[in-house]
Amino acid sequence: MSRFQIAPQVAGLASYQPGKPIEETKRELGLDDVIKLASNENPFGPSPKATVAIAEALSELHRYPDGSGFHLKRALVRHLAAQGHTKTPDELVLGNGSNEILVFMMRALATSGANMVIGWPSFVVYPIAGQAAGFEVRRVPLVDYRYDVRALLEHVDATTRLVVVGHPNNPTGTYIPKPDLQRLADGLRDDIVLVVDEAYFEYADAPDYMSGLDLERKNVFVLRTLSKAYGLAGLRLGYGIGDKALVGYLNRVREPFNVNALALVGGAASLDDTAHVERSVRENARERARVGKAIAELGFLVVATQANFVLVDFRKPAMPIYDALLKQGVITRPMSPYDLHEHLRISFGTAAENDRLLRALGTVALGTVRA
Ligand SMILES: Cc1ncc(COP(=O)(O)O)c(C=O)c1O
């Protein structure tokens, strides 16, 4: 209860629960060596080109950043051209993480009585930010961890303004196969924005994976981030690609200097380091196959993933397993905020970190550690 008159849509919210930090875990459990496989970060760190560019920019920190992101947007235009997409800077919006762009989108589109449609479970920020903005949030259950496109479309009505899908989705790691993504886009009125959140785009390699950019529709808005494959989660940088009129409205609700000066230069330098991102993606693909198979061999159910994490179904309450792993210095992610009480989401680390995870999971499977 509060003495303040909190907006009802905010009063009813649960706050976002981040992955447990390494330092806090060390302190609480008296451990020296802790690994974090909880927040889908890149275990290989940032590009050295990014850290050099950031170091060089430090002496200019007394200046405000370039609020238009001129150079970074040009770097992104080149980056997208190399992927076969011709875009102009006015089709791009920059965010303090892609998370912030989701908030801009919801702020720009929510009106009284409007609804947005999401699959569930999907990234928990969608319902939190959507509700905070004033949307009625319609959660459409995934089927076998996958989006059910027909059901999504059935929940769309005259007051729907926005549909958001994770592609690949967090926390399931699944994606929407090309014909289904096409069907989803085809089934929406052209005044409804379809946000295709591609935070894990770089990691997806399924033959029938298709970026939302390939839909080439004015009402499709694609969201990407440098927090994952580019290893810059701490810097906070994401970008959105969409119709320039829509981007113009997002810029109206954007704060003037939302992307900081270090993110502007670090991001641009990072985009140039294709070798770094390619290595990160290659190593992830190898570990994804190896770790997925090993977890399944321990007798746990593994959801096929196209991302840098895997959702594991233990078919019994997962918190004791989370605690048992934590005591062995391995931080994973509880899934209760996603209504998955028998699951943990586990990010892939370096090969050595993953070996340690597998040893810890082995003790849980054998019952040598009570879980
Ligand atoms: C699906 C999805 N979208 C967006 C984000 C937000 O990422 P960021 O704000 O770091 O760009 C995340 C982060 O975990 C995510 O999983």
Summarize the structure.
The protein is α/β, with parallel strands linked by helices and 371 residues long.
Beta-strand percentage range: 15-25%
Count of individual domains? 2
| Contiguous runs where pLDDT drops below 50 for at least 5 residues | none
CATH class of the largest domain: Alpha Beta
Report strand order across the widest sheet.
2-8-7-6-5-3-4
Shape: globular
- Count of β-strands: 13
Report mean pLDDT, rounded to a whole number.
96
CATH names the topology of the largest domain as Aspartate Aminotransferase, domain 2
| Ions, cofactors and other bound molecules | pyridoxal-5'-phosphate
Topology order in helix (H) and strand (E) letters: HHEHHEHEHEHEHEEEHHHEEHEEEH
Helical stretch count? 13
Structural class: alpha/beta
How far apart the termini lie comes to 36 Å
- Biggest β-sheet strands, sense, barrel: 7 strands, mixed
Cα-based radius of gyration, to the nearest Å: 21 Å
CATH architecture of the largest domain: 3-Layer(aba) Sandwich
The percent range for helix content is 25-40%
Full CATH superfamily name of the largest domain: Type I PLP-dependent aspartate aminotransferase-like (Major domain)
